[in-house]
Write a structure and sequence with these properties.
Length: 64
């Protein structure tokens, strides 16, 4: 039978810190024997396909 998960204030704070500032990504919580043992954070950064200068040129061409 599974042990009840032990979550104290310190782990709640650590989870909150891992979530802080993420726009795209995930937080993975690893549990062993009913205890949190690890928090993994993966963050994705999204960039526009065109550089800013390319968009400005395209906008000028359309308005010309």
């Amino acid at each position: 039978m599974a042990k009840p998960l032990e979550v104290n204030e310190q782990w709640l704070r650590r989870i909150g810190e891992a979530l802080e500032g993420i726009e795209y990504g995930s937080v993975h919580i690893v549990v062993h024997d009913g205890r949190i043992v690890q928090i993994e954070r993966s963050e994705r950064r999204r960039f526009d396909a065109e550089p800013e200068a390319g968009r400005e040129r395209e906008a000028r061409r359309r308005n010309a």
